[in-house]
Design goal:
The strands form two sheets. An eight-stranded antiparallel beta barrel has the order 3-5-6-7-8-9-10-11. A two-stranded antiparallel sheet has the order 1-2. The protein has no helices and eleven strands. It starts with 17 loop residues before the first strand and ends with a strand. The N terminus is likely disordered. It is about 0% helix and about 50% strand. The protein is globular, with a radius of gyration of 23 Å. It is mainly beta and about 190 residues long.
Length: about 190
């Protein structure tokens, strides 16, 4: 295909513009040609604000024992008890998010959702949860996480797939690092 077969135009007259591309496939005498059309949309014209970058740091406490557990197994497969990775276990959570690594430090929100053991060969969870904030300027806002958490990896990245309030249409990633774990009780604290 020659450079004359496709034409791309970009209007960059405004600093806050972004481009959207469309691809049109046409079939001509047994060959496929691809035509790319670009158009430019003004952020101001469509009421879109400039994106902001936020770096948040907090601690996630998974409490599975005691009088008030915050992580409770709600389902399991018939073979979960015989699996070294608890494959098939599904856990519902309402875990505290704190400003510091100690459970008694300032509560800034909750991690609410589920995680499920999704690997037969390593301790790897499918995480589906919201970080719901209840303190400061983020009060009432949340971030939605959907991703894989390989527990014994030093640092894990999980995708941020959305949010609400100040985090409406958020995207990015959450980096989790285990701060401490009690193998006797199963309780864990991770820095995010």
């Amino acid at each position: 295909m020659s450079s004359d077969d496709a034409e791309a135009r970009t209007d960059s007259s405004e600093v806050n513009d972004f481009s959207i591309g469309e691809v049109d496939f046409k079939r001509e005498f047994g060959r496929i040609s691809i035509t790319t059309v670009r158009s430019s949309l003004s952020r101001a014209k469509h009421g879109l604000k400039k994106e902001k970058l936020s770096h948040l740091h907090f601690y996630f406490h998974d409490i599975v024992s005691g009088r008030s557990p915050t992580a409770i197994r709600v389902a399991e497969a018939p073979t979960t008890q015989n699996s070294s990775t608890a494959f098939g276990a599904v856990v519902m959570i309402d875990d505290p998010l704190t400003a510091g690594p100690d459970l008694g430090s300032k509560l800034v929100g909750k991690a609410q959702g589920i995680y499920a053991s999704a690997s037969q060969t390593e301790l790897g969870f499918l995480m589906v949860l919201n970080f719901a904030f209840m303190e400061g300027k983020y009060n009432g806002s949340y971030l939605s996480v959907l991703g894989r958490n390989t527990v014994f990896s030093a640092v894990r990245e999980m995708p941020i797939v959305g949010g609400s309030g100040l985090f409406r249409s958020a995207r990015g990633y959450a980096r989790a690092k285990t701060h401490k774990v009690d193998f006797n009780t199963g309780e864990c604290c991770c820095g995010v």
